[in-house]
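To assess whether the prediction recovers the assembly geometry, we first specified each molecular entity separately, as shown.
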Amino acid sequence: MSAIRILMVDDELDLELLVRQRFRRRIRKGELEFIFAHNGKEALEKLEENPDIRLVLSDINMPVMDGLTLLGQLENIHPEIRAVIISAYGDMENIRTAMNRGAFDFVTKPIDFNDLTITIDKTLKHIDTLQQALQNRDRLVALKQELEVARHVQTSSLPEALPEGDDFDIGAVMTPAREIGGDFYDFFSLDDYRIGLVIADVSDKGVPAALITMVTRALLKSAARRHDSPGACLAEVNEFLSQDNEACMFVTLFYGVLDFRNGCLRYSNGGHNPPRLIRADGAVEVLQLTGDLALGVFSGHEFREQAIDLATGDALFLYTDGITEACNPVNDEFGEGRLDELLGGVPQQSSQEMVQSAVQAVEAFADGADQFDDMTCLSLRLQAFRPAADG
Amino acid sequence: MTEQSHLAVRAEDSDKATVLCLTGRLDGTNTAILEAAVAGHLEAGETLLLFDLENLIYISSAGLRVLLIIARKMQAQSGKALFCGFSEEISQVFEVSGFKDVLSVYRGRADALAAA
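The predicted structure of the complete assembly is given in tokenized form:
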């Protein structure tokens, strides 16, 4: 470590010798280095030459530029520097002025070198703390920028263009509580007739959760290409997530496969809030749980399946608990009752309108209360069956 | 936005186990309170901890995660964590997430202690 440089400003030339003598051990050890100036103007020049100086010890009465003027300049030009004033004993008026101009401390003449040593060390410690705080602030700014990039990566990893056909439409929205979220949704075509729909929520929020969402989404999409059965897909993802999961992070995940030929939805539900089926007439049905466990908790779990038939005009609504557990300022939950009422009250909206009106209703209900959890929903409406190709 | 939700953990001794009564909400903002409250009992090598959730009004997934961590830690030292006293809301969370099949869940204290 290089020596800490201290600028000493005093027009008494003997002081230079005295200081070098008193601090000789620490100077020899390379801990401290003293630089001397004899008035305020010279001091400013020395600071120009030695931009790493953080501590200035200054007398008050000096020719050319006095110590109080120097203090005023330091405050403007070098706010990072801390100054200790050396003044005549009992000169309270100048000491008060110096303190008001931002001096960190003072010592009196004739100099008591024990006191000077203590004052120097105390001030250096303060400067060190201050610099660490500034470095932490810079690191925090850098981290925030990284988070912003991560948020962008996460948002753009969600399926972007919502596919729309004559026979269905999809709407989706994700509103993280923090910069990045622990929810995700996904949908993908499996073949000419079937589409996979996913919604998931990782325990906890923020960066650790976001990492798990990326892994889970990729694992599930890969499993979906290889297994027709939603239960088999969940079992495979569960095996990956449960291995060496010391942090006990888990994912609640619903995965369904909708067949456009007959409207049949096969699904498996790993501990996720049950999605809703909104019939064309506005009746809201709950997709029965498959009795399965969140993913990542237990290896070897076999995931069961259920099936339900959609008619044309029916819509599916998948959501995370950030929707139903959103609270208003007096801590009432939005709840499933309000959600079902909302979903049943708006038949034949487009899917995008449906998810947006759900989020808007929750935000209106929250009435400015903080959003504690990520809010995500995904909706698909079946407009018509897709005829199977001959043969 | 990181205001801490209210959670109180009170320890009661019973013949067979330490009973920890949770009051308030258990979510990502305050899981550290529960972890701290349990740490001493874990270190002391206690083999039976009963969590009474009767006065718990809300549990988030982050809260479930901490219960799972505690249950695993107890298991690792040949102990057991039991859970009882579920309100309708809390029992629904355990039902949906499947945690009722993973954690040792009982209706009331007496049932839990009788089974232990």
